Amino acid sequence: MDETWKKARRDELWDAYVHNVPELDLPAGASDRTVQAFEMLRVLSIVHQAAVDAGDTDQAIHTAARGRIVWQLLTLEFVRWLFDEPLPDRRLSQLDDWVGCERIALSLVLAMHRDLGPHPHRPAIDPVPVLMPRWLLNRLAGALEALGDGEVQDIVRPAIAGRHGTAWSWDKMRASALEHVAFLHGQGQTKKVAQQRVAARMGIPPATLRDWERDAALKDGCETAYGAGKLKIIFEDDPKYAEGDGKSVDSGALARLIKFRSEPSLADFGAEYREKFGRRHNPGTSADN
């Protein structure tokens, strides 16, 4: 399907869902169709809320579906040019550029949308609007449907790297353990004491944590966690630090501090690790999922 065909079909959708909707009276004389689309979304939101308040489920579903179409049309009108920007040698919109590496394309699309904006503000973008080429959407949807029938397609197939089972989950928890050590160290505890505290909660020897530190991938978040620990002490002494006083904070460290505050405590983290992976260190004494 070439771009001319796609544009013609999109124009038909603009006519059907924005321009010619007799039951929704938009202001006359809008400067262009994007302004009309914004107004349509505003009107639809009012109609949708009225339907929800009245308990009219069918109308609420109908207006929400219509609103999603208008939103998609508006998005394509404005920001389609952003889509192929990250990789000059490959275009996300073109399937032929990603044959055999569809999972890389999917990971790139997700990272593009997940990692936008200053670290502390990212959780506020929820839900996350995601721009995804239709070919990739179809591949992912098909792969998920296939999983329901026991078939594993390439886009979701585990990598063959000599690892299996819960290897990824174990890596994530090991990295989190090192970040807990760095967080305590940043608060002024010696690294030795921090390792002892974390190890005790996890039911492992402190030497195991030191062994893990040799893996650069597991240490990736430690510097930020250390900065978060330092910020914790600063904010305890001055809760209004950097609020209009000309001082600044590292956004990554601040985001990690916020995340630490929302995560389970060290005690709960240690209990979860013992439950899931304790058997790796003490065979026969704990479950290992």
Fold and architecture overview:
- The chain is mainly α and 289 residues long.
- The chain folds into 3 domains: 3-80, no CATH class; 95-156, no CATH class; 167-281, no CATH class.
- The protein is 60% helix and 0% strand.
- The protein has helices at 3-19, 33-54, 57-79, 102-114, 134-148, 167-186, 191-202, 206-212, 222-237, 251-262, 266-281.
- Helix 2 (33-54) runs antiparallel to helix 3 and helix 6 (167-186) crosses helix 11.
- The mean pLDDT is 86.
Number of extended strands: 0
Tell me, briefly, the overall form.
globular
SSE string, helices as H and strands as E: HHHHHHHHHHH
Mean pLDDT score, rounded?
86
Question: What oligomeric state do these chains adopt?
Answer: single chain
- Sequence stretches where pLDDT stays below 50 over 5 or more residues: none
Count of distinct structural domains: 3
Question: How many helical elements?
Answer: 11
Fraction of residues in helix:
55-70%
Straight-line N-to-C gap = 47 Å
